[in-house]
Amino acid sequence: MRKIFLTLVSFSFIFLTGCTKTEDQPDVIVDIEVSKEGYRPDKIYLNRGDVVLFRVKAVDEGIGDDYSQEYYGHCFYILPPYDVMLENIKKGETKQIKLKMIYPGEFIFTCPYCSGVFPTKGTIYVR
């Protein structure tokens, strides 16, 4: 029973400390433009522990500007373990998300809407 309890406590600690979204003040602001040509910049270098405000602006219509559809425009998705996404960014619109960079390594960001059609992919390097 004690082993199960310790396992649950360990899992809970990992789960609770693994959250990357935050309301803390940003240490770094990263402005990104996304278009059918890709992301600018497409390589981002950060330090582990940084609180980062990503501001993503769509400079074209992406997969389309029919806002009655479920998916339109562009998005910004950082693959797991971060696993966060800004969706449906309209041409000329900027959306933002604030994250604490707790995992070191290389992480892909992409637009799942466009990835099979346009070269929308980049890498975040956390050291």
Automatic annotation (TrEMBL):
Keywords: Lipoprotein. Residues 11-125 form the EfeO-type cupredoxin-like domain. Pfam families: Cupredoxin_1. This is Putative lipoprotein. It comes from Persephonella marina (strain DSM 14350 / EX-H1). The lineage of its organism: Bacteria, Pseudomonadati, Aquificota, Aquificia, Aquificales.
